[in-house]
């Protein structure tokens, strides 16, 4: 009995690596500390009522943001471990298996559990406010999406201390990811972590598409809509078309692993190439899913901080839509070298290059928004200005990669690594950071400190170039991705060392940001006006942070940059701040079902990971029970009375 | 006040650029840019395309960066800036036509060259010598090369005659990998159940770095091999000496070789008949012609001969050559 | 929650009126959302169909569709499911005429037919498995069981859902909310019917031909 238990424990828990033992201790201590603080300050009820059961899009957004920053930390630590291992030839810091796990989790976390939630954080915080809406179309579903993401991410993250991490790369190509070559539970964690959070992402796509189509303030035509909301519309459509493919692809891989089926196996007629096609049919749109909202953010910021209307609004909308359509017709460029045929490769090479056209147009439009403007170099604008050269170079190397015959030389090399980090960091991360700096006062009512922010900005940026420019060169030297070590013979050592130094500089940049946030909580400049940047869109017309009902009275919109126009009119004395009659506001009630249902999904996922059928069934029954409970619930909303609205508005100094 | 960040930005950008240059210069002494050092016609074509695309991209990038710096400098928000300020100017058909037009032209040029070379590289390099064939099988975590004409086999080492086009046939009896010899030409995937084709040629004798490029598990990092090009006569000598001195690769020897693990450079005087075809077929090769062109009677050789492809292409299933 | 009760007590006449209007909007929103969900479900099935078509001939020496599929069985399944789609249409008709009991009756018939369909399918699967044609036998069978099984799972979930809606109809009668729920489930049901027609053609008809 005892030995049996011991055997179980030694496979159930990951053992043997001091790094992991350290992580174990850290996890236990952090959990104890959190539980202690919540209990000591009697905050459990507050946490449950105000946050965990909230269906308020602003609070959900903040929870997404916190989770994504934690994931950025985890993914970043993974990156630094890798760069440590690769700093010099033949280092024994990480063994092959461990290194393979780390690059797999790094990629998966950064795309699916960092970029996606950070994007959803901004969707949630900004879109309803920009549209003049009180919430998203389906607030309950929105909460469910968050909790599905959260528990999916937890399940994935658990793998490095329990059972073992996946180690077949962030897209888990079979047959490597099949039972024949990855018999452990790691791949199951990968499948279920992504699957559970993927359902949430799909629901978010539907939610925001309907929100944007149906919940805009009266008078706001689609072609008057702020560009960030346009970018969300475009991304939501891509999510709706791409994510079902991911769901099925991973489901089929799981059926292979769990029931011994042969979709992608080497034997019995399986076809691994089919997986590669399917996963990239999702995977390529996915990178545009994360970058398009960043384009929306840049558009808002460039216009605000140049104090000028966005240049070529229609082109901006049109180009985003073209990109989202084209993104579904480029997937083969991820495997030109699988030799699909000269005709096929030519088609996909040209469709890929074609994406450079609308993207280039966007760059010019941003430049000419600044032209004859008045450029204020505030933090959001700094990140935007850093984005342009970074993304232009990254985009250019992307066009180079699209040249199919040349791609035979770049593919799987560090040239490719440098390229996609340049567009994903320079495009996506810079964009989201710019957005976070920009909308931070709207979320929390204070600005983030400028001085610490500048330190963070410069360490991040210098670190970025020091880290990734050498990697282009390493690609030309024949260094392939995913090697855990290398020798002295190829002369890769100096550039790798430089690259590692750059990575650590970026890590320091992140530390500055943590410092900046903690410092600003206490000392940051408070925003009492609700419009700290003298901005242009509706979210800045209401107090910071926004009251729970967002708009005391629903705004009427007649043009682009509605809030700017309103301010101009008021300045010219044409219009006083209007004060129409207040009415009770219809709001959705909080609900505990989303978090409970997602927890049951976690239980089911965990059961499937270890093939414990009883646990999987119990989890799925719990999910079903939650769905039924919701179906039978009719009392799901309430009204905020007029006098409470008056009181709230008065507390912001806005008498109505 | 507002000037400072802009100046800082410029300074830092210059510093970063200088650092990059320094690093490149430094590393030039120790490392070798194998991709930019073509030793055969395929790699040379690819290098030309790399340079062409880089130049075309630079034509766009450099003006854009210059315009960016100029605009940020000229229109910065500081008291007394005399530059014009037109807060409502947001539209210019002429300007927008220009920057929809420029990238379209550039992509047009690049696309044309890409299409031309993609089709060209599907064919063997032009040469008056008869090509030789080398079959490549990626295993966990080693490379097996079989020479169907010479009937010898090697592991983690491949010798080819210089100046002769080599038709590499690629497959895998393990998770997919990618066969890459940068100085001779780009890589191509090795996939279970498929026989891909990659034309390469070394113009001069020499030893060229080869590596597995697609992650395939634990010891992927050790999947390196050397490609040695020798004059035809020396190559022939080498073949006959291998035939005389090296041991044979038997069926059970192959079973040993398939087991996960790394391997030293090894030579074999012979290998089981039809080994490569067997490997392809047992991993699903027999289905390939069904899924590529269902319903077309007798398409077995048609699709692949014309569809030869990329630098390469899916060849006939070897088992089907007798159809 | 304490403050909610207060709000509801203080709700006035106008608010109640507005409430009805807003509910109407919300039901419309939910129907739109469901349509979009169906788009995603279409893509989901589309991907499964694609996988099936690719692997259709990959039998690994095992049985193929011609040997496995029994014409009377899948024709009966088709007939049952098509009829259930028709009866769910009759249910919607009854609902529009405000006839609750008739509505419940037709929903019950629909659910019963759905259950028969699932029963047939389960026995078909069991028979195949008994003959050694399991999901792990060949890529073709993996794709077959997954595609057809996913449809069957959709139908089964629809049955549970339909039962829940019938209970709500009994308790609350035909209201704006229950009307929307009936509408949505019948959309779902017709959708599954349409998917089956593709299954019938691509899997069964082309299989036995």
Automatic annotation (TrEMBL), chain A:
Enzyme class: oxidoreductase
Domain Cytochrome oxidase subunit I profile: 40-558
Principal localisation: membrane
UniProt similarity note: Belongs to the heme-copper respiratory oxidase family.
Any single Pfam family the record assigns to this protein: COX1
UniProt pathway: Energy metabolism; oxidative phosphorylation
Enzyme nomenclature, EC number: 1.10.3.-
Signal peptide: none
Cofactor binding note of this UniProt entry: Heme A3. Binds a copper B center.
Organism: Gordoniibacillus kamchatkensis
Task of the protein: Catalyzes quinol oxidation with the concomitant reduction of oxygen to water.
Topology term for the membrane: Multi-pass membrane protein
UniProt subcellular location: Cell membrane
Matching InterPro entries: Cyt_c_oxase-like_su1_dom (IPR023616), Cyt_c_oxase-like_su1_sf (IPR036927), Cyt_C_Oxase_1 (IPR000883), QoxB (IPR014233)
Reaction(s) this enzyme catalyzes, per UniProt: 2 a quinol + O2 = 2 a quinone + 2 H2O
Alphabetically ordered keywords of this record: Cell membrane, Copper, Electron transport, Heme, Hydrogen ion transport, Ion transport, Iron, Membrane, Metal-binding, Oxidoreductase, Respiratory chain, Transmembrane, Transmembrane helix, Transport
Transmembrane segments: 20-41, 62-82, 102-127, 139-162, 189-215, 227-255, 275-298, 310-332, 344-368, 380-404, 416-440, 452-473, 493-515, 595-615
Cofactor(s) required, per the database record: ferriheme a; Cu cation
Keyword set includes Metal-binding: yes
Record-given protein name: Quinol oxidase subunit 1
Automatic annotation (TrEMBL), chain C:
Residues that span the membrane, as ranges: 32-54, 74-96, 103-120, 140-161, 182-206
Pfam families tied to this protein: COX3 (PF00510)
Signal peptide: none
The keyword Membrane belongs to this UniProt entry's keyword annotation: yes
Domain Heme-copper oxidase subunit III family profile residues, every copy: 32-208
PROSITE patterns (alphabetical): COX3
Record carries keyword Transferase: no
UniProt-listed CDD domains: Ubiquinol_oxidase_III
PANTHER family tied to this protein: CYTOCHROME BO(3) UBIQUINOL OXIDASE SUBUNIT 3, CYTOCHROME C OXIDASE SUBUNIT III
Family membership noted in the UniProt record: Belongs to the cytochrome c oxidase subunit 3 family.
Subunit structure: Heterooctamer of two A chains, two B chains, two C chains and two D chains.
Protein name in the entry: Cytochrome bo(3) ubiquinol oxidase subunit 3
Organism lineage string: Bacteria, Bacillati, Bacillota, Bacilli, Bacillales
């Amino acid at each position: 009995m005892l030995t049996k238990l011991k055997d179980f424990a030694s496979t159930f828990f990951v053992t043997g690596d001091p790094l992991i033992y350290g992580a174990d201790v850290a996890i236990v201590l952090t959990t104890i500390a959190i539980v202690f603080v919540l209990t000591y300050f009697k905050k459990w009820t507050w946490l449950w009522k105000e946050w965990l059961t909230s269906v308020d899009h602003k609070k959900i957004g903040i929870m997404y943001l916190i989770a994504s920053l934690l994931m950025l930390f985890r993914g970043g630590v993974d990156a630094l471990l890798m760069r440590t291992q690769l700093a010099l030839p033949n280092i024994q810091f990480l063994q092959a298996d461990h290194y393979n796990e780390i690059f797999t989790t790094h990629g998966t976390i950064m795309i699916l559990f960092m970029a996606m939630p950070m994007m959803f954080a901004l969707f949630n915080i900004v879109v309803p406010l920009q549209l003049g809406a009180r919430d998203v179309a389906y607030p309950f579903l929105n909460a469910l999406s968050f909790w599905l993401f959260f528990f999916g991410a937890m399940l994935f993250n658990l793998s490095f201390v329990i059972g073992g991490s996946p180690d077949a790369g962030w897209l888990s190509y079979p047959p490597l990811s099949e039972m024949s070559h990855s018999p452990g539970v790691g791949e199951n964690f990968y499948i279920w972590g992504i699957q559970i959070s993927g359902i949430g992402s799909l629901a978010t796509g539907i939610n925001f598409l309907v929100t944007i189509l149906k919940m805009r303030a009266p008078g706001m035509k689609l072609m008057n809509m702020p560009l960030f909301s346009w970018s969300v519309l475009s991304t939501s459509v891509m999510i709706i078309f791409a994510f079902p493919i991911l769901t099925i692809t991973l489901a089929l891989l799981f059926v292979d692993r769990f029931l011994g089926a042969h979709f992608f196996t080497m034997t019995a007629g399986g076809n691994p190439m089919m997986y590669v096609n399917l996963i990239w049919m999702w995977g390529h749109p996915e990178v545009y899913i994360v970058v398009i909202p960043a384009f929306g953010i840049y558009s808002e910021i460039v216009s605000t901080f140049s104090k000028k209307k966005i240049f070529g609004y229609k082109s901006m909308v049109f180009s985003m839509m073209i990109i989202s359509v084209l993104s579904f017709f480029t997937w083969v460029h991820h495997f030109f070298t699988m030799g699909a045929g000269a005709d096929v490769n030519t088609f996909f090479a040209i469709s890929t290059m074609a994406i450079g056209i609308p993207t280039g147009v966007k760059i010019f439009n941003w430049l000419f928004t600044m032209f004859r403007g008045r450029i204020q170099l505030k933090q959001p604008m700094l990140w935007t200005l850093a984005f342009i050269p970074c993304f232009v170079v990254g985009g250019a190397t992307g066009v180079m990669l699209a040249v199919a015959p040349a791609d035979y030389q770049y593919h799987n090399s560090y040239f490719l690594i440098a390229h996609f980090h340049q567009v994903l960091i320079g495009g996506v991360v810079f964009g989201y950071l710019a957005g976070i700096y920009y909308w931070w006062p709207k979320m929390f009512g204070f600005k983030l400190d400028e001085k610490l922010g500048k330190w963070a900005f410069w360490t991040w940026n210098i670190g970025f170039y020091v880290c990734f420019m050498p990697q282009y060169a390493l690609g030309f030297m024949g260094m392939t991705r995913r090697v855990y070590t290398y020798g002295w013979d190829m002369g890769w050592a100096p550039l790798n060392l430089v690259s590692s130094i750059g990575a650590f500089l970026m890590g320091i940049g992140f530390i500055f940001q943590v410092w900046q946030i903690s410092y600003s909580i206490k000392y940051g400049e408070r925003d009492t006006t609700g419009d700290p940047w003298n901005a242009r869109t509706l979210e800045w017309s209401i107090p910071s942070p926004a009251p729970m009902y967002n708009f005391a009275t629903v705004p009427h919109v007649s043009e682009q940059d509605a809030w700017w126009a309103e301010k101009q009119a008021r300045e010219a004395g044409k219009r006083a701040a209007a004060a129409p009659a207040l009415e009770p506001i219809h709001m959705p009630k909080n609900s505990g079902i989303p978090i409970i249902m997602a927890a049951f999904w976690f239980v089911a996922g965990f059961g499937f990971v270890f093939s414990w059928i009883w646990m999987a069934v119990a989890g799925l029954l719990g999910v079903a029970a939650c769905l039924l409970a919701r179906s039978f619930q009719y009392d799901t909303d309430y009204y905020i009375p007029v006098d409470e609205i008056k009181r709230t508005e008065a507390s912001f100094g806005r008498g109505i | 006040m507002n000037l400072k960040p802009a100046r800082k930005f410029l300074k830092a950008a210059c510093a970063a650029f200088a650092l990059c240059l320094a690093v490149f210069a430094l590393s030039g002494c120790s490392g070798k840019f194998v991709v930019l050092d073509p030793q055969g016609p395929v790699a040379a074509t690819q290098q030309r395309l790399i340079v062409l695309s880089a130049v075309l991209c630079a034509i766009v990038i450099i003006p854009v960066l210059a315009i960016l710096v100029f605009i940020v400098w000229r229109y910065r928000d500081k008291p007394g800036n005399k530059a014009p300020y037109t807060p409502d100017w947001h539209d210019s058909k002429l300007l927008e036509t220009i920057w929809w037009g420029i990238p379209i032209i550039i992509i047009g040029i690049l696309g044309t060259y890409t299409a031309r070379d993609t089709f060209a590289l599907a064919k063997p390099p032009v040469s008056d010598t008869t090509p030789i064939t080398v079959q490549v099988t990626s295993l966990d975590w080693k490379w097996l090369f079989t020479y169907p004409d010479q009937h010898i086999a090697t592991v983690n080492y491949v010798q080819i005659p210089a100046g002769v086009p080599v038709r590499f046939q690629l497959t895998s009896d393990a998770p997919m990998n990618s066969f890459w010899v940068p100085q001779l030409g780009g890589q191509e995937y090795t996939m279970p159940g498929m026989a891909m084709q990659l034309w390469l040629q070394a113009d001069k004798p020499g030893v060229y770095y080869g590596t597995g490029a697609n992650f395939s598990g634990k010891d992927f990092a050790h999947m390196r091999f050397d490609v040695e090009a020798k004059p035809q006569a020396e190559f022939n000598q080498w073949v006959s000496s291998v035939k005389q001195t090296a041991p044979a690769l038997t069926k059970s020897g192959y079973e040993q070789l398939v087991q996960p693990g790394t391997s030293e450079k090894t030579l074999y005087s012979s290998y089981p008949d039809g080994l490569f075809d067997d490997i392809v077929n047992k991993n699903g090769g027999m289905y390939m012609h069904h899924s590529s062109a269902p319903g077309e009677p007798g398409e077995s050789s048609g699709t692949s001969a014309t569809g030869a492809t990329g630098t390469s292409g899916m060849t006939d299933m070897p088992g089907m050559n007798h159809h | 929650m304490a403050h909610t009760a207060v709000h509801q007590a203080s709700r006035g006449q106008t608010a109640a009126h507005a409430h009805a209007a807003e509910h109407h909007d919300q039901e419309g929103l939910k129907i739109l959302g469901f349509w979009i969900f169906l788009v995603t479900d279409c893509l989901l099935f589309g991907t499964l169909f694609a996988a099936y078509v690719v692997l259709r001939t990959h039998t690994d020496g095992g049985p193929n569709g011609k040997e496995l599929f029994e014409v009377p069985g899948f024709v009966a399944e088709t007939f049952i499911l098509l009829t259930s789609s028709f009866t769910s249409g009759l249910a919607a008709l009854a609902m529009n005429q405000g006839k609750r009991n008739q509505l419940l009756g037709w929903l019950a018939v629909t659910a019963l037919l759905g259950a028969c369909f699932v029963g047939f399918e389960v026995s078909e699967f069991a028979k195949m498995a008994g003959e050694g044609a399991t999901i792990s036998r060949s890529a073709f069978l993996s794709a077959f069981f997954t595609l057809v099984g996913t449809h069957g799972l959709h139908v089964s979930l629809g049955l549970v859902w339909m039962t829940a809606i019938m209970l709500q109809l009994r308790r609350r009668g035909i209201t704006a909310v229950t009307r929307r729920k009936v509408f949505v489930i019948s959309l779902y049901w017709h959708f599954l019917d349409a998917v089956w027609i593709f299954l019938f053609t691509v899997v069964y008809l082309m299989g036995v031909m």
